Amino acid sequence: GAGGWSPLVSNKYQWLQIDLGERTEITAIATQGGYGSSDWVTSYLLMFSDSGQNWKQYRQEENIWAFSGNTNADSVVYYKLQHAIKARFLRFVPLDWNPNGRIGMRIEVYGCTYRSEVVGFDGKSCLIYTFNQKPMSELKDVISLEFKTMQSDGILLHREGQNGDHITLELIKGKLSLLINLGDTKTHPSNAHINITLGSLLDDQHWHSVLIEHFNNQVNFTVDKHTHHFHAKGEFNSLDLDYELSFGGIPVPGKSGAVSRRNFHGCFENIYYNGVNIIDLARRH
Predict the structure, then answer these.
(1) Which residue windows are coiled coil (predicted)?
(2) CATH number for domain 118-284, candidates 3.40.50.2000, 2.60.120.200, 2.120.10.80, 3.90.180.10
(3) Rounded distance between C-alpha atoms, residue 225 and residue 222, angstroms
(4) What are phi and psi of 284, to 5 degrees?
């Protein structure tokens, strides 16, 4: 249509902000210049936020991504995003524009409403999931969740057995640590402790994803897009663990496994254990 956005001053400090009204999954964007003008943007950055205050820059291949913009006022330049953004607010930040004109943009955003299950933790609570189905002789566990926090320390997940075996996922100084402890060092002398650390600055109040896949004694630990694969020797496939998972903390003080022993303070989204939606289950029961 006619018109478009053109700020009074064309410099590097301008941006166009969009409030989508609710959290949305954005899959593509398109831009034009100002209608019937010599005003168009030749490159720009894309930023996104849930709150409108805490912003993150769109990245591709680990680098801040500068989008190539328009070469005239009316041709549409369309980009399908390499990975979808989940956000309520978007900011388009012009980097360069037509030297014979001004900053001018028309924008279209493509996507759909993002539905999710979210639960908040206040640093004093935890969510316990008890399941009565005994695992098969082939132990297979898949746990996935997303988290967001401003705190640099806290327990995300804990599972413990009668003989001291335990698995703990803990945020320590902004990094995620997966600790697997085989309690009986006489039975498992070769690897009584397995401690894998991934990520950094994970206390930035943005969503981060975690995936733990455990098949027999093969473990895949993924934080955001970084995966650590490891093969645990010995009797790891027969860990003596209770049929209880604790999210956000350790329910009984003094239990083993945590370095900081601080409960998680922040939000979890879409917690799944072997396909079971834990937050939905908690809400319905």
Answers:
(1) none
(2) 2.60.120.200
(3) 7
(4) -80, -20
The two structure tokens encoding residue 135: 């695992």
Q: What is the distance between the alpha carbons of residues 141 and 213, in angstroms, rounded to a whole number?
A: 6
Tell me phi and psi for residue 109, to 5 degrees. Answer: -120, 135
Do residues 264 and 148 touch, judged by C-beta distance below 8 A? Answer: no
Instruction: Answer for the pair 123, 32: CB distance below 8 angstroms, yes or no.
Output: no
pLDDT tens for each residue of 145-189: 999 999 999 999 998 876 667 889 999 999 999 988 876 555 544
Sheet holding 127-130, edge to edge: 127-130, 244-247, 154-160, 166-172, 175-181, 193-198
Cβ–Cβ < 8 Å for 176, 230: no
Domain at 16-113, CATH class: mainly beta
Strand partners, 245: 129
Mean pLDDT of 225-238: 72
Q: How confident is the model at residue 76 (pLDDT cuts 50, 70, 90)?
A: very high
**Residue for token digits 């975690």?**
210
- Look up the pTM and report it: 0.77
The helix (run of H) or strand (run of E) holding residue 284 is helix 278-284
What stretch of H or E contains 66? none
Phi, psi dihedral angles at 179 (to 5 degrees): -110, 120
Q: Domain extents for the chain?
A: 16-113, 118-284
Q: How far is residue 91's CA from residue 89's CA, in Å, rounded to a whole number?
A: 7
Domains 16-113 and 118-284 equal at CATH topology level? yes
Virtual torsion, Cα 18, 20, 24, 26, nearest 10 deg? -40
